[in-house]
Amino acid sequence: MTYVAAPTRYETMPYRRCGRNGLRLPALSLGLWHNFGHDRGIEVQSDIILRAFDLGVTHFDLANNYGPPPGSAEENFGRVMARDLRAYRDEIVVSTKAGFLMWPGPYGEWGSRKYLLASLDQSLERMGLEYVDVFYHHRPDPDTPLEESMGALDTAVRQGKALYAGVSNYSPEQTRQAAAILRDLGTPMLIHQPSYSMFNRWVEDGLLDVLDEVGAGSIAYSPLSQGLLTDRYLNGVPEGSRAAGSSPFLTAEGITEEVLRRVRALNAVAERRGQSLAQMALAWVLRGERVTSAVIGASSVPQLEDSVAAVGNLEFDADELAEIDGYARVD
Ligand SMILES: NC(=O)c1ccc[n+]([C@@H]2O[C@H](COP(=O)([O-])OP(=O)(O)OC[C@H]3O[C@@H](n4cnc5c(N)ncnc54)[C@H](OP(=O)(O)O)[C@@H]3O)[C@@H](O)[C@H]2O)c1
To answer: What are the record keywords, sorted (predicted)?
Structure first.
């Protein structure tokens, strides 16, 4: 069956400007870090991606190493693009990144010009795309001059292989310097991709201020704390969940009674608001418009639908915010 996008797709999703740049992103974006490798069926992947697009999620976030195996999420996304979304390319923002280990030897990770430009060529080949919308440096490299890494992003944009440049996991000071270098090169920093959730608030200690200052947007990753800030683990660790798998990033041992006590208390706040916990966690990240978009993961269409419905209520009163702080602030 030929896929035809839902005519209603732009009716409910808010789109927010990336800092002082022209590009607007959906309040919720879909990330393909987990659940889109060759370890999952292509049909469920394609169902999630197409349902997301039907719900106004115009932005898909990838990286060279997403899988497993590394590279396979880009290959699978490329298959869905080629089969179903080719006609909608101009309605879609695709991002990819380079920075983590991708191939052996001295040129397969970090931030050299050699690595970044070769990696982008490989990503385009895997996805079958002529260009990505956003190319990110995935993590700061302590041993490569920032001028070299930012110069490579600028080259990618000048070559037409990326439309915009971004950075991820950079500290406030690294971000300020990177933005200045990019500005001087004539390729403004579009966006920063940091981790941010009710449980992880480091961006509030300076990064969001720097982004305001330099005019870049922000897209918060792991806003559900990889599933902790949902109902996923309320009654134990279910089969097939991230914590039940081999991911080193979320383990069953990490889900302690103390964590669950907090999650249950937050769940009660969400219930009073008439939201699922996932919806409240996403609304919280998006409150006040300082964050441009939240990039979510999903392993099923119902999860995606539940999360996207967060846009129905992004407002909090002061009492709710204080109560959430009481349960979620871990510092
Ligand atoms: N730049 C970086 O360094 C970096 C790092 C990490 C992530 N990211 C980006 O951020 C994206 C999102 O990261 P993430 O997957 O960790 O984000 P997340 O949204 O915090 O967690 C996603 C997981 O939460 C569970 N979930 C999602 N919606 C749910 C719902 N409505 N109800 C119950 N459970 C739900 C699912 O777990 P199950 O799989 O267990 O079902 C899902 O895989 C990535 O795909 C990637 O694009 C970037």
So the answer is: NADP, Oxidoreductase
